[in-house]
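In this section we walk through a basic example: taking a raw amino acid sequence and producing a predicted 3D structure, encoded as discrete structure tokens. The instruction is simple. Fold the sequence below.
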Amino acid sequence: MRELSLHHKTVGDIPLVWLEPQSGKGSTLVIWLPGFSGTKESVEPQLRDLAQAGFTALSYDPWQHGERRIETQDELCQRILSNIRSHFWPILAHTAEESSQIIDWAVESLGVAPEVRMGGISMGGDIAIAAASVDQRIKAVAACVATPDWLRPGSFEPPGEPDEYSLACYERRNPLTHLELYGHCPALSFQCGAIDGQVPPDGAQRFVTALQPTYQDCPERLDVSLHDGVGHAFTEAMWGNCLIWFQQW
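The resulting token sequence is shown next.
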């Protein structure tokens, strides 16, 4: 079996990587994003699993991450954690809104179908859920240890206070307060740590409950899986469920 080659490209100012399956070009695109402070290269193992499953697998550096960093890695972490609402919300909103540019390029340049799957780990999952409200070509999302409620009530992390700019990002893109943008019923799966104190799983549960009237004809397209004894950690079981979800939808 030949080694899959990781391809690199910059689309606009967004660096990305992708893998094509053994059979050549895959018709179905899955975008998979890293957690906070991660890079597109850090999710290469998941991209390889996706390509081996027959998908075209792509990741891009979230805003202010990877090749797009505006400071050192330590400075990035210190800045964001000093005021999560002020500094983190814009990353979520900007990166979610960039998904359309990435999909446009992939459809044109990679020959993938315009029905896309997307997911990620922690921050990457937050972004993927928000992106599904930005671009209706995203038909399925699998989000691990992520939340659609950017307020994250109950988190042990001090949230800080938003400034005017970050508040505008929240008001524009926070999934829980924009249920109307999910009327196209993308298939949404949350893989949550049952004892996650950083990103409490009740955010996903409240979101899915609130969406049930919209999904009354297709309730099977909503899923929250709680993993007993797991905190804020991305596990093999979670990843296995994500692969199944992408294959199912």
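Looking at the output, two observations stand out. The longest strand covers residues 138-144. Residues 236-248 form the longest helix (13 residues). In the next section we compare this with other chains.
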